[in-house]
């Protein structure tokens, strides 16, 4: 599929917007790319939209992970365990999406995003992270390059169960996974927001790689490489911009940006 400069420029800008917002909240940007491609590229099938999006999400994931590595906010021990659980789910999701009708897909995605947005808005938020009663979790101590210290405990087994399901869901929906991972990490597992977004971003590139290999073998993105490169270029730049902005925002603001993004996209798909 060959595109002219008039077609490529909006895709790069879409990638930049999605990549910036995605890295800021650890979500990868797929939650922006998928609904907009569904709306503006109605000639594409659902599996093509999710395949194209996941390629851009993977580029954003690796670029954002480098930025957060420099900041020193990634919980590698937890992230690697969660990746091991999420990869099988992501492969299954990439296969299942081929059998879902477009209308049903949009409705399910929209309702899921709205549900997570409502939960994120009304769930009491404690900036320090931590889950009450989480005394049996694995202790973690993260000190970032700015001198901030994050001390908490993480429930690895619960997290691995959550990330397997999220890997399946995110791959099937083409949204990466961070849009679900970050609220789960913060509210259910007790990670501080800054560590949750960085760790989620670290996971995105690797987990989406499994789904992308499956999509490539199935031929889901064949003929759409110009679109993929344009979107990915934007998300790579956006990842660096989003990580830079994150250094200047409080935990509460990051959570609000996450909720707003979820709500806007979910409402648009449902309506």
Description:
This protein is globular. It is mainly alpha-helical and 271 residues long. The chain has one domain. It has ten helices and two strands, in the order H-H-H-H-H-E-E-H-H-H-H-H. A hairpin with a 5-residue loop joins strand 1 and strand 2. 73% of the residues lie in helices and 4% in strands. The protein has helices at 5-25, 30-40, 46-71, 76-96, 102-122, 156-173, 178-189, 193-218, 225-246, 251-270, and strands at 138-143, 149-154. The two termini are 30 Å apart. The chain has a two-stranded antiparallel ribbon. Helix 4 runs parallel beside helix 8 (193-218).
Chain-wise SSE layout:
Elements: H1 5-25, H2 30-40, H3 46-71, H4 76-96, H5 102-122, E1 138-143, E2 149-154, H6 156-173, H7 178-189, H8 193-218, H9 225-246, H10 251-270
Helix pairs in contact: 1-2, 1-3, 1-9, 2-3, 3-8, 3-9, 4-6, 4-8, 5-10, 6-7, 7-8
Biggest pleated-sheet summary: 2 strands, antiparallel
Q: Round the mean pLDDT to the nearest integer and report it.
A: 82
Number of helices: 10
Helix/strand order, N-terminal first: HHHHHEEHHHHH
Give the uncertain stretches in residue-range form. 127-133
Give the helix level as a range of percent: over 70%
Classify the beta-strand content into a percent band.
under 5%
- Rg: 17 Å
Total beta strand runs:
2
Terminus-to-terminus distance: 30 Å
- Large-scale geometry: globular
Number of domains: 1
| Structure class | mainly alpha
Spatial strand arrangement across the major sheet: 1-2
